[in-house]
Amino acid sequence: MDLLTSWLAGIAAWLVLNTIGSVVIVEYAPAEQLQNFASSVAWNGTAGFIAYLLTAVVAALVHRRPERQRLGRNALAALGAPVVGTLGNAAVLLFTPGAQWGVFWSWSVIALAGAVVGWLLTRWMRA
């Protein structure tokens, strides 16, 4: 039950934060920059890093004792939503004509690194 609660909180945070990140990119990123690989990865990677970091923090904070003391279980609780979100995005991209897989996986690695940083930050704060 402790994992389910963390995952639900993480998925809710992931949905909200990724929506905010998408809105920021659509509103503020110049279209010509999103056509460039490096700029597109920078915009999406920055938004993803922040969203995934905060998602992992939310999920880790919801994870309760005594289970959060176990490293593997705590990692599963905090990182479950970001990983599932990335896989969900990949599934959607499968059905998108002309999908740019290089951009997707590049920013996804950056975003997942944010999730790991968020989880480790939360563990450090609770130590």
TrEMBL record:
Protein name according to UniProt: SPW repeat-containing protein
Sorted UniProt keywords: Membrane, Transmembrane, Transmembrane helix
TM ranges: 7-29, 41-62, 74-95, 101-121
